[in-house]
Design brief:
It contains 17 helices and 14 strands. The protein has helices at residues 2-13, 17-20, 85-95, 103-113, 137-149, 155-171, 176-188, 200-204, 208-218, 234-245, 295-307, 313-321, 353-366, 374-387, 395-407, 414-423, 427-437; strands spanning 44-47, 53-58, 64-71, 116-121, 126-133, 224-230, 268-273, 278-286, 288-289, 328-332, 334-335, 341-349, 444-449, 464-466. The relative contact order is 0.14.
């Protein structure tokens, strides 16, 4: 009883002041707040004696250090008859051990120290990452440099990586959404390295010698940008890095010329037959690159169209009004070395396939017909500006942002000017870029599903070509 008597005044003390005095409950829709002020933390850029670029950001909140190396390489440089080589090199770089440390020892040491070293190679970049407790940094850094400079690509581990890749290829058509995404990308980038996909034959053709040669060709210190963040002293860290990478000599790395993809601007209707009750719908065409002067207006335009969740037009019609899909969205990716893609996507029951496609095409076309509303513009701009801060949630994300910007050649001040440029986008800008960059007449449509269950034949939208996924 005494405990209850003590708790009563404590609970009463928690009642908001406005309720205690009978004041009006605040309406969150009319509340105002000062503008969000956020300043991107400064990152120091240093060049080591061997040409390696380093971005440094100290953060002593936790006893952790992270590093991420960006290597100028990628699957766009692999031979056409050995597609998958870069991905295998990325997996086996860490998984195959080093010339000084067998893979089993590497695994056990990292596990004992609660450290992590991972590697991968994508379309236009390679990465090697390190995470370590501060007290274990010296040994983890030594292993990190071994992985970077002297991987062993041990034969049995290479075989394991190939087997995993081949099994993934054999299973990649199990997921209808993955099939739709892949076939749309292949159609948009047809004839370009970005449109190639590994096959069992191309992966099987890769040898250990290929991996060694690939590493030797691209892994040099002057071809690396390193982001370092966490609990360290600047002077001490630079000394560690100079010592760790000091024996790695710079060497010229001539990158092969890769032509830009050529936009065909030809509509297409592609069907992947699959006995499923839900259709996967993908449509799109070639987009823009990061240097496009209309980038910020396009970003706002796409947010209104389908990139801003429930407030977007696609979601408002396809899900909320018509109830045809759980999710529907669009993206207008700004490619970093090559043009990206414009894509719109959804999944719907087979019996509403044509209905959903028709509405999506109408909504995309509608963006080019008339200006957006003031409310749509304000909401889109505010959403983009206010979400900007989430790209900098910790010191690692800040340092990595800076490293990536330099890696891909973004102009100075890109991040600092981003919010202001978004805020200056007008309704006239949105209509202009929609008319210039959206091509409803040139959409490539990909549908994965059971055509016998569609509400209308796909030929409603053009000549249909069946695609058998590899």
């Amino acid at each position: 009883m005494k405990r209850h008597l003590i708790l009563i005044p404590l609970i009463l003390s928690l009642v908001p002041a406005w309720r205690a005095v009978g004041a009006t409950v605040p309406d969150p829709r009319t509340m105002t707040f000062p503008p969000l002020a956020f300043r991107i933390p400064a990152v120091e850029r240093v060049v080591l004696d061997n040409g390696m670029v380093v971005h440094l950001l100290e953060d002593h909140e936790l006893p952790l250090v992270t590093m991420q190396a960006y290597i100028r390489t990628g699957s766009i440089y692999e031979p056409e008859d050995k597609v998958g080589l870069a991905g295998l090199a990325g997996a086996a770089l860490r998984g195959g051990g080093t010339t000084a440390t067998p893979p089993e020892t590497l695994d056990s040491e990292l596990e004992f120290m609660a450290s992590s070293i991972e590697s991968s190679i994508g379309a236009d970049s390679g990465t090697v990452t390190l995470t370590s407790l501060t007290k274990n940094l010296d040994r983890t850094l030594a292993l990190f440099t071994q992985v970077m400079m002297s991987p062993a690509f041990r034969e049995d581990r290479v075989t394991q990586a190939k087997n995993r890749a081949i099994e993934a290829i054999r299973r990649r058509n199990d997921d209808p959404q993955e099939v739709g995404d892949r076939e749309l990308s292949r159609a948009i980038y047809a004839g370009h390295p970005l449109g190639r996909i590994p096959t069992v034959e191309s992966v099987s053709a890769v040898t250990r010698d290929d991996l060694v040669a690939f590493h030797r060709r691209f892994f040099h210190p002057n071809n690396v940008i390193l982001a370092v963040s966490g609990d360290f002293d600047r002077k001490g860290m630079l000394e560690k890095l100079q010592a760790a990478f000091g024996g790695w000599k710079k060497e010229e790395v001539p990158l092969p010329h890769i032509p830009q993809p050529v936009p065909g601007w030809k509509p297409a209707v592609l069907l992947v037959k699959k006995a499923i009750d839900q259709s996967v719908i993908r449509m799109g065409h070639l987009g823009i690159d990061k240097n496009n002067p209309d980038l910020h207006a396009i970003t706002v335009m796409n947010a209104i169209l389908g990139g801003n969740g429930f407030s977007s037009r696609l979601m408002a019609v396809i899900r909320t009004r018509e109830g045809l899909a759980y999710n529907v969205d669009s993206s207008f990716q700004a490619g970093r070395r090559f043009p990206g893609t414009f894509e719109a996507e959804t999944e719907t029951k087979a019996g509403s396939t044509a209905r959903a496609i028709g509405l999506m095409r109408e909504i995309i076309d509608g963006m080019t017909r008339r200006p957006v509303s003031d409310a749509e513009l304000t909401l889109a701009r505010d959403s983009i500006i206010n979400s900007f801060i989430f790209a900098f949630t910790n010191s690692a994300s800040v340092a990595n942002q800076r490293a990536r910007l330099e890696y891909y050649g973004y102009p100075a001040g890109y991040l600092e000017e981003f919010r202001d440029r978004i805020g200056r986008v007008t309704k006239e800008d949105v209509l202009r870029v929609a008319r210039k960059y959206l091509r409803p007449d040139a959409l490539i449509l990909v549908v994965v599903g059971d055509e016998t269950k569609f509400d209308k034949p796909l030929s409603t939208f053009g000549e249909v070509r069946e695609v058998v996924p590899e």
